[in-house]
Amino acid sequence: MAFIIWISVILISLYTAAFGWSMWKEKNRLGASVAFALAVIIVLLPKFTVLK
């Protein structure tokens, strides 16, 4: 079950990072920085909350 959760988390994080990359190319640096930070948080948060 943990494997399925991690695959889902990684896919969501990659999607969010790709969105940040598209914003970066459009010169929206602040929005891209927040999207990249959110992508990192998406990966780190389950490690400390759901998957103990």
Tags for this entry?
2 helices; mainly alpha
Describe this structure in words.
The protein is mainly alpha-helical. It has one domain. 85% of the residues lie in helices and 0% in strands. The chain has two helices and no strands. The longest helix has 24 residues, at 2-25. The radius of gyration is 12 Å and the shape is elongated.
Summarize the structure.
With 52 residues, the protein is mainly α. The chain has helices at 2-25, 29-48.
What structural category characterises the helix and strand content? mainly alpha
For the terminal residues, how far apart are their CA atoms?
Answer: 13 Å
Total individual domains: 1
Helix content: over 70%
Radius of gyration: 12 Å
* Mean pLDDT metric: 91
Count of helical stretches = 2
* Largest sheet data: none
Shape: elongated
Strand content: under 5%
Strand tally, please? Answer: 0
What is the H/E order?
Answer: HH
Q: Unreliable runs, pLDDT <50, ≥5 residues?
A: none
What is the topological layout?
Layout: H1 2-25, H2 29-48
